[in-house]
Specification:
The complex is a heterodimer of chains A (about 400) and B (about 100). Chain A is about 70% helix and about 0% strand. With about 400 residues, chain A is mainly alpha-helical. Chain A is extended, with a radius of gyration of 34 Å. Chain A starts with a helix and ends in a 7-residue tail after the last helix. With about 100 residues, chain B is of the alpha+beta class. Chain B has helices at about 1-10, 20-35, 50-60, 80-85, 90-95; strands spanning about 15, 40, 65-70, 75. A 4-stranded mixed β-sheet of chain B has the order 2-1-3-4, with helices on both faces. The longest helix of chain B is centred in the first third of the chain and has 12 residues, at about 20-35. Classes of the chains: A mainly alpha (about 400), B alpha+beta (about 100). The interface of A and B includes residues 299, 303, 345, 348 and 366 of A. Chain B: Pfam families: Glutaredoxin (PF00462). Chain B: Its main location: cytoplasm.
Chain lengths: ~400, ~100
Amino acid sequence: MGLRAAGNLFQLPFKQKDFKLPNAYNINLTCTKATSIISSRSMDFPSAQFVPSRTMGNYEPIHQIGMWGENFKSIDNPDISASVIVDVANKLENESETTSHEMLAPSSKHDQEASKPFDKIQRRLAQNREAARKSRLRKKAYVQQLENSRLKLIQLEQELERARQQQGLYVGGGLEAGHLGISSAVNSGIAAFEMEYERWMEEQNKHMCELRSALHAQISDIELHILVETGMSHYFELFRLKSNVANADVFYVMSGTWKTSVERFFSWIGGFRPSELLKVLVPKIDPLTDQQILEVCNLKQSCQQAEDALSQGMEKLQETVSASLASGQMGQVTYIPQVSMAMEKFEALVRFVNQADHLRQETLQQMSYILTTRQSARALLVLGEYIQRLQALSTLWTNRPREPA
Amino acid sequence: MDKVVRLVSERGVVLFSKSTCCLCYAVKILFQELGVTPTVHEIDQDPEGRELERALMRLGCKAPVPAVFIGGKLVGSTNEVMSLHLSGGLIPLLKPYQALC
């Protein structure tokens, strides 16, 4: 422990103008002499390569510390005091003042170094440490400022867009500016959604905690019912938010851009597939009555049929867009007619996304009718936890250790 | 409006659609899966298509297609059809018109 502490104490933030160091030092420190250091001031250092970085403006001595630490491992006595470190610095400083581009010959110079006062060195080291600390604080403050500015910028852009739309004005004139206006509306729509979604997730986690503690406590069915209704409304709120951003950019919703990669993997038309959801939920809400089992079974089947219908409708949409784009001869100078035709089809995409969300909402609603209040509460909890697990998997996957290429 | 009323009272399950509308296609697929063959009126191919469209919208179909009528009564658009199906109410309505197989 003392060794590592020693390494940390001895920060080597050499500014080039303070120390004129040669490129490499050989410093010898033998373990047997460690205890006599304070008294005798004579030392042999084990061979260690200390290579001060040329670009030391930022006080980053980490790899130097590492090297020091490595070499101190061989020393038996862990109690190397600061004075050892100071003496090493002492030695180094003297080197910079006397010679340059010379290898240290430790044996001949020891007595000379030991006689120099080390107050000067200690002060210098302390100043360096202080300067490093101040620099870190400045950097932290700067980053904080950048973050705040970024948020402010997003807000300003949104306000600007709102003001523009109200006045029906676009800065400048002509098609180009109009185009700019539209795309910034898209951006602000997306930015607004992302902020709202972040808030939504925070609310969601709060709901989960409330539900969890409510199920363990002995709260009345009426109170539990309120919690269930709140939970359901929260999901319906998300569908509403999605509908808004779908009008701004339907592909944003289709791609599930705001979600983690694993959630996107399971995505169907911009969200979870209702029948899949039922498959996850139902086994966790035991025990169900026979009547309930029948009703859930019917619900699952209806979901499946509705999903199939929508999926086939989506395929048809792809076919028609593709056919529009490919119509006429290829290799023509202009293909605006084909592209315009295809654009009209994309209006339908927004309807599909809304329809899929409607299906999700209906599924949740029907489940709440089939299940008891307690079962519904449990179902909401299972759903929330399942999503959390998907997100956790995503994080884990992104951070998995990888072999260097 | 008269034409709409006439068309829907003729057969059991009537679907107003447009040949280019993919959501209408989805509804057709759903009926197919449920064993029903609705009478489909492609209003974009009907000379009185505009009138039909206006009539449907006055009846409450915002889209205006797809619009589903069963037994002469308006069920609604895709939303209503889906909700009805998930709640288990669609199949009983379709029972008299399902293909016997």
